[in-house]
Amino acid sequence: MKYEVVMGLEVHVExxxxxKLFCSCSAKFGSEANENVCxxxxxxxxxxxxxxxxxxxxxxxxxxxxxxxxxxxxTFDKKNYFYPDLPTGHQNTQLYAPICRNGYVxxxxxxxxxxxxxKQIHLEEDAGKLVHDYRTDASLVDYNRASVPLxxxxxxxxxxxxxxxxxxxxxxxxxxxxADVSDCKMQEGSxxxxxxxxxxxxxxxxxxxxxxxxxxxxxxxxxxxIEYESERQITAVETGCEEIVQETRRWDDNIGxxxxxxxxxxxxxxxxxxxxxIMPVYISDEWIAEVKTTIPELAEEKYKRLTEEYGLSDYDSxxxxxxxxxxxxxxGTLKYVDNPKEVANWILGDLSSIVNEDNKxxxxxxxxxxxLGKLIKMVEKKTVNRTIGKKILQEIYTNNVDPEExxxxxxxxxxxxxxxxxxxxxxxxxxxEKSIIEYKEGNQKVVGFFMGKIMRETQGKADxxxxxxxxxxxxxxxxx
Amino acid sequence: MKNQYYVTKYDVKxxxxxxxxxxxMVKDGLTTAGSKMLHNYISPIDxxxxxxxxxxxxxLAGKTKLDEFAVMGVSGDNNExxxxxxxxxxxxxxxxxxxxxxxxxxxxxxxxxxYYIRPTYGTVSRFxxxxxxxxxxxxxxxxGDLDEGIExxxxxxxxxxxDSTTQGDGSLALNSKGPLKEGKYTIGIPVNVMNKTDEKSKxxxxxxxxxxxxxxxELEHFEVLSQVMYILSSxxxxxxxxxxxxxxxxxxxxxxxxxxxxxxxSRTEGFGLNMKLTSIIGAMVLSSGNYEKFYxxxxxxxxxxxxxxxxxxxxxxxxxxxxxxxxxxxxVNLALYALxxxxxxxxxxxxxxxxxxxxxxxxxxxxxxxxxICKGGR
Amino acid sequence: MDIKDLLQYEKMVKFDLPESERExxxxxxxxxxxxxEALSGIDTDKTEPLISPIEVQNxxxxxxxxxxxxxxxxxxxxxxxxxxYFLVPKTIE
Lengths: 480, 378, 93
Ligand SMILES: [Zn+2]
Fold this sequence. Notes:
Chain A is an alpha+beta fold and 480 residues long. Helix content of chain A is 40%, strand content 20%.
């Protein structure tokens, strides 16, 4: 029997706001425990929530870039449960009037293009963080993430393979990072994904019992977990020795298995009700239009600009729009050198290999666009040659040096004095009479031999093109 | 006992001293909200109302006792004098602030020849008030001299950036200079409510009717006001007090093994019986299977009641509600006090008759009318 | 409400009531629940729920972050803390 895997995704994304959803505490990642906390977001009494406007706008943008309808009047509901990471005993979320509905994104896999439908996107607040402490054998609670704005993107059960799931997540990541909705970093938890998975006989239209997979912290883990869980379910259906129950399962990427999670709560009734402290927010068409104008260029539009306006290759343009970071470096540098092709070459060539050697993901590098731009210009104007340029790039990358200053200090400027170069060329020619004969006999390889000698004489600081011109001119004198 | 009405009493000689119910925060001081759950809670802030009064040069006389989390029990004896009423009565302060959602202070103030001003919902900041029923919480004023109460209201009312639901400015609460209305005020008397009141209340309303132009009307849904009030408030109270769990602040049980014990024992030991009942009912009315039947239904009836009031105020400047019914049952009497908080309307408890009075309720933001009626009548 | 229902609600709101309180609460709850039946007689088919008595749109907060309280102030009321964290018994996963 052939089986088909049916999956739906719930993706949580932390919004890129400065402050939290209901208070002015910083929403930035990476602070000391409980440093970005106030009485309000640690659950103390006597505070009234003040909804963050930017969070609503980012919710609207998330909906616009995923082709959703924006709900004209949104409300917030309280979801009740007890857990130490939830300081108020309830999570503010949107059950009855989520901000976006009925959207889709288009993904592309080896089997072609496909639309994944989005059921809804809702705004909610994040919970704090629990760490197990071995010294005290207790749990430690940090509320820095508590009340940071989140959106949850709920898809329809449109996925049939892990490949589609990953393609979708990459698409969401691209859309939201380019649109400034979120930085979507799975390793920092600003993008999280739960997979609802069930199996059925191929061709059947009924859905099987689904399980929900949690704790999927990387694309690799997601693919592995899907493979594991779909096999477990197919075996269960085929052998009948295990019944599939609707449950939440936690993926353990170390051992490569999932196991049923014990319920956080004894009684699983969230007792949702509308939060009377958060007034309904009316989202007018005017507001949506205004927000729309603030959306930065998305990867697809950028790709078009790179191929059509700049004439870059498909391959290069795809690479340069593959992540927000690389696209930012490209556009940032382009502001200082108006030469897209050169900028592309530098980023995809020399910079990439330097980053590669550094064993760092491209998305985590930090480089000054202006300095990179200056360097490219220096090479273009032949102030330094390309080989030296590459060395300087390494210095910019590791030590953030100014390329001009660095070249001056290390006397790396190119020798452009043709009189001086002519003397060197003639000196080298005179020292190698045998080679002149070869040249006269038509051996063009000799040019390369002379070039190497001359470049060595000039410690690589001569402009190779100028040297070649002079060399050929001088050599040709012997031909007569 | 000299300070039987206070939890904390300061030695204040000033003649403009004010008292606070112990659910309104004063920075670095205890705020217990009358609960063991918060027995050791030190406020990190000054409530906006406190800040405003202190800035006006008024002095804090102390913090008064209250029902646990200001939640009145619906069974048993409810007659113990409220701390705020007692404090104003024994002249240890001129005015006292409290959050009277369930009507105890409204009734007791008038019975003791004092006034209670419950302003329009959203006119006084809730910043620093321990929340009870978020959609009904409203700091009000107990006073012996109405002018002092009005003056106080003009100080504490107005928009506060720390409470996004506040609106308007203090002037809405101010006593207007000229006459607010040409001719006489018309006061509506709910005849179906009057049929159920005791003799004292009938007498008080009669006194009111002798001075004003009154018209009778039928108050629809009066027979379910207690229920609607109880359903909505218990859900909100249960939710607002689920933050008290022994994890972050307040009472933590000494007997616990794991997390579940910590929660359960802290909450079981920390809350009083009435709060436990309230939370259980709150969970019941919100639980799946009951939500539509109870909570959603109550919210819908709440709208019908509010729409009815909007309609009534097209004809009346105010409506008068008695303060006691001919039943002693607090749950039955709750219907009298539910109208103002359910609809967010301002109300004024006025002493009238012998040891009794009426509540005058007006349109939102029309506190002026209530004050004007009250003064003209005296 | 019977004892089974009550135990369910106790779990939801984290109580473990003594028997004497259970008896009283069940009695009160049944009295209240009975009174709630009166709501069913009111036609609300065409009525939207009222969540708050004021339904104006409030100005939303501009997205500006600022630190208002120190960590020490936040932890000042905590029953148990460790190294800048609130401390609770270990949560079982
Ligand atoms: Zn905060």
